[in-house]
Design a protein that fits this description.
single chain, Rossmann fold, mainly alpha, 3-stranded antiparallel beta sheet, 3-stranded parallel beta sheet
């Protein structure tokens, strides 16, 4: 399963997947955010037929407003099967590292996208996907929003990354991508070590090394793709150490200590105590 928007990266993904002998289904998701976006599905369908791939079209509705990119990604994920491959390149990886750094992300955020079947092109540069499309005689869809300075990723792509490379005197994209690989390996190691720390055991949390205790809490209280933020994790540690009785860690979720055991529970709407 390949997510194919019609841009050069995703078209290259489709071409390379079929060349590798995979039985490919190209899935195009139309967000309906641009005039004429429906015709982009036809581009993907034509390329899919040319390379012997199955084509599938999906349509989602995303209202304009704040956090448009994030909401569009969420809507896209809902209609794409689990494990769908995307055409993210090394350049996208470098941008993601910088974006997450600007947002104050921790180790997992700086590890960015993980290498594997879902991100098979992380060793490929954006210039190479364009060169492949040119070689194959393909005309990719050009998304005008990729140059819209209202979106933070575009400013990182067109302003921050070039500036970083200018200051460093070299192309920093491979450096940032390599750093993400190193941090991903360290994050995996911490996850493995944190597995020995029982997050519901207040004494175990209170005596564990801070990095492992925080990791254990984040694993325990992860809500889908999103673990609690650092401030919430520190509040849970305060509960484990006996500094406070309970704390809210997310809307509607509270962690409470009873003797030496921590438990999380949903808060009823009528419970307004707001224990901290």
């Amino acid at each position: 399963m390949c997510a194919v928007s019609g841009g050069p990266d995703s078209l290259a993904l489709l071409v390379l997947a079929t060349a590798a002998g995979c039985q490919v289904t190209a899935v195009h998701v139309d967000h309906g955010l641009r005039f004429g976006s429906g015709s982009e599905a036809e581009v993907v369908a034509d390329v899919a037929r040319r390379y012997g791939a199955v084509f599938r079209a999906e349509k989602v509705e995303v209202d304009r407003g704040a956090n448009l990119e994030a909401r569009a990604r969420a809507a896209r994920r809902e209609v794409l099967p689990a494990g769908t491959a995307t055409g993210h390149t090394m350049d996208d990886q470098a941008e993601t590292v910088l974006l997450n750094l600007l947002r104050g992300a921790g180790l997992d955020g700086l590890a960015a996208m993980r290498r594997g079947a879902e991100h098979p092109l992380l060793s490929v540069r954006r210039a190479e996907t364009r060169a492949l499309c040119l070689h194959e005689g393909l005309e990719p869809v050009e998304d005008p929003t990729n140059h819209d300075a209202r979106f933070l990723r575009n400013r990182v792509r067109h302003e921050l990354l070039p500036l970083c490379s200018e200051i460093a005197g070299r192309d920093v994209v491979p450096i940032l991508a390599r750093q993400a690989d190193v941090l991903a390996a360290e994050a995996d190691l911490l996850d493995e070590l944190a597995g020995d720390v029982d997050a519901s055991d207040a004494a175990a949390l209170a005596t564990a090394p801070g990095a492992l205790a925080r990791r254990s809490i984040r694993r325990w209280l992860r809500n889908g793709d999103y673990p609690p933020d650092l401030a919430a994790v520190e509040r849970v540690l305060a509960v484990a150490r006996g500094a406070t009785k309970a704390t809210d860690v997310a809307p509607g979720i509270r962690v409470r200590r009873s003797r030496r055991v921590l438990a999380s529970a949903r808060i009823r709407r009528t419970d307004r105590s707001g224990v901290r």
